[in-house]
Amino acid sequence: MSSGWDVSIVEIFKPARLSPGDTVGIVSPASPWAALCPRRLQRGIACLEDMGFQVIQGDHTCARTGHTAGTIEDRVSDLHALYRNPDVKAIIPTIGGYNSHQLLDELDFDLVAQNPKILLGYSDVTALQLGIFARTGLVTYLGPALLPQFGEYGGLLAYTRDSFTHVLMDPTPGGHPMQPSATWTDEILQWDLEDSRARALQAATGWKVLKRGQASGRIIAGNMSTLLLLASTPYWPDMTGAILCVEDDETANVATVDRYLTQLRQMGVYRHIAALVVGRFPSATGFSADDPLEAVLTIATRGYSFPVVYDVDFGHTDPMMILANGTWASLDADHRIEFKYTEPTVLLGE
Predict the structure, then answer these.
(1) What is the rounded distance in angstroms from the CA atom of residue 142 to the CA atom of residue 120?
(2) C-alpha span between 143 and 159 (Å, rounded)
(3) Is position 316 annotated as part of the catalytic site?
(4) Which residues pair with 325 in a beta bridge?
(5) Which residue is catalytic, options 163, 225, 316, 330?
(6) For 177-341, which CATH superfamily applies?
(7) For residue 8, is pLDDT > 70?
(8) In the chain, which ranges are continuous DSSP H helix?
(9) pLDDT at position 5, please?
(10) Quick check: is 152 catalytic?
(11) Catalytic: which of 31, 123, 163, 330?
């Protein structure tokens, strides 16, 4: 899309798929929570090792400089080292935070493009994922992070693990359908103190249709408040014909979600996308019968006929699917919803 700034058109390409025995690199691009929750960190690493991967950490994974995990230089050096390392096939941040976008001005995009790897994560990591995609064309992946999901008591929830396998390890050559989870949770247990049990799951009510229709396009997925940090920068992704997938966390509320959706409208995003897919919001966001998400979405997208679905399994509730930025998908939203990839999500190779 165009909103008064240049969006370079780049050739889209994918990293190679993950296989058992591959090396996964861990990095902390923003928040220092890895330094504060060592047990959770080790549990996340153990989960990856149990899945058959070797794990290495960036030198500053557990650094702490005020509100960030080391300086900008520390965090960028860790990313660069992992991209240079030929053994590393995927990079998984420990967690998001608020300041991953600090790294974009210092990131060597040529290095990233010449050493394509899976970059997996969500929330604040959206800035890195979409900035890299915008500047290089390399497909990136919104999905689980080390501390919140791999570090879960008992490891990845089954739905999340299945998505990890289907998207990053063994994708269907012709694409893969995404299915709603039967259960979900947004329970918060204080890490390293209270998280010695599985979180309580509740029955999910399924994905919901606000506006019916069909669409196909490349997925652009991210945390709304983080995505909007990239507006008017060289890191804003091309949204022409995109299936835009957005969500936000428990610190958002009805008014701020309304604000973000309205900003997307006023930036002209809705003139260019093919569909809008909204992730499930945590209960703390505060949507209710008196102030429902459906009303906020209806007002924000008034005058547009693209399909809109919501309560989809990604974002700041668990379990979560993995959404591959830049990969073609189709959405059929009628009485039932069919959302599926229409091409492989990683480079299949041998």
Answers:
(1) 6
(2) 12
(3) yes
(4) 140
(5) 316
(6) LD-carboxypeptidase A C-terminal domain-like (3.50.30.60)
(7) no
(8) 33-36, 38-50, 72-84, 109-114, 126-136, 158-164, 224-227, 254-266, 293-300
(9) 38
(10) no
(11) 123
Find the catalytic residue in 60, 100, 166, 247.
247
**Which CATH number is 23-169's, of 3.40.50.1820, 3.40.50.1360, 3.40.50.10740, 3.40.50.2300?**
3.40.50.10740
Omega before 234 within 30 of 0, i.e. cis: no
For residue range 63-85, what is the model confidence (pLDDT) as tens digits? 999 999 999 999 999 999 999 99
CATH 3.50.30.60 positions along the chain are 177-341
Q: What is the pTM of this model?
A: 0.96
The pLDDT of residue 3: 39
Active site residue 166: no
Are 223 and 247 within 8 A, CB to CB? yes
Q: Where in the chain is the domain with CATH 3.40.50.10740?
A: 23-169
Q: How far is CA 166 from CA 149, 176, 317, in A?
A: 17, 7, 20
Residue 243 tokens, joined: 């299936």
